[in-house]
Amino acid sequence: MRASTARLTNSPVRLADLQFPQVNRLIHRTRLAFIHLENLLAYAKRDRDGRIDGYLAAHLPDECVLLFFRKGEAVNAATLHTAGRRVITITEALKRMRTEVERGDLTYCAAPMEQLAWMYASCGGTYQPRGIDVNQPEKFFPTLQHEKVTGVLELIANGRVSYLKFDQGKYLSGHFCDKPDNTPPARYLESLFDPGPDGSAPAMSAGTFPGADDLPAQAATALVNTYRELYWRIVDAVEREFPGEAKRRAQKVTAAIVETHQVLALLSVPRGTDTPDAVVRPEELAGALTDWALQLLEGAEVMMPGTATKVLKDATREHRYVLQAAGFYGKLPWRVTW
Questions:
Q1: Are 336 and 329 within 8 A, CB to CB?
Q2: Model-level pTM?
Q3: Residue numbers of the domain that contains 168
Q4: Is residue 119 part of a domain?
Q5: What phi and psi values does residue 51 have, to the nearest 5 degrees?
Q6: For residue 252, what are the CA distances in angstroms to 6, 179, 193, 264, 272?
Q7: Which of 161, 183, 209 is a domain's end point?
Q8: Among 283, 289, 295, 279, residue whose Cα is nearest residue 326
Q9: How far apart are CA 122 and CA 117, in angstroms?
Q10: DSSP conformation class of 189
Q11: pLDDT (tens digit, 9 = 90+) per residue, 64-92?
């Protein structure tokens, strides 16, 4: 298969050359056509050996899609492409892989959680490119010290990606791609600037971003749909108590707090339409629905005491265990008993 010539944004680095640090390659780079994605995703459910922290890197014609795993469960996804880098939904990541199954390839690796958090953070919107002169490597790191850089430096050389953490310009720790165990970090970093066998300079790219402590989990599409259904069930229950008023009241409350809880724009999409593709966290869903329900039902309670408890009981009965796990009922002033 002919490798894509697409390059990372504002960089000489080819997307097809990207390799990330790892502690164990579970699947070496293999054609996507030979990989059963569903079996790979279910591996942790069938085998204890599959419950690893790691990532799946899929090289597609115009992008590199990353799928992050915590204890074998896919928890988030991102993409590096010709126009930038960003976080995407797991559903969208898998869709892109399946679309390019004949032209893409994949590698599956174990990696420490700190590294996964940094890989994710580099795609989270705060990445700042840095200039790098491959002919003057001796000036690069002193500049970081002089500027007292704090955060994580992503350094790519001929596709090999390394991550270095700095505090006020002082190097603290790092994760390096294919660094021999007996090679000190300083010597390894020097080697990245070495010219190739033909004397050509390495294709290099660098950028910094704030270091993250943990890899966040995004809400599964099924969970988003559950909260969207709960939103409309609460509207329906209020409508039964105040005919002709519920939808208007719900929209008014949504408009008032949507800047604080942007996920409400997702939950309030009219029924009968597809759920928009958006990356949200489970706690964002729970927080948004809680605040929205509180404000909506406070108004109903003033007009007809006892309405809030009845609405909550009728509207959320089927999904009460999901809401209980999220602490939904405990944050409301009305006690709901089952």
A1: yes
A2: 0.87
A3: 15-125+136-209
A4: yes
A5: -85, 70
A6: 47, 57, 59, 12, 21
A7: 209
A8: 283
A9: 9
A10: H
A11: 999 999 999 999 999 999 999 999 999 99
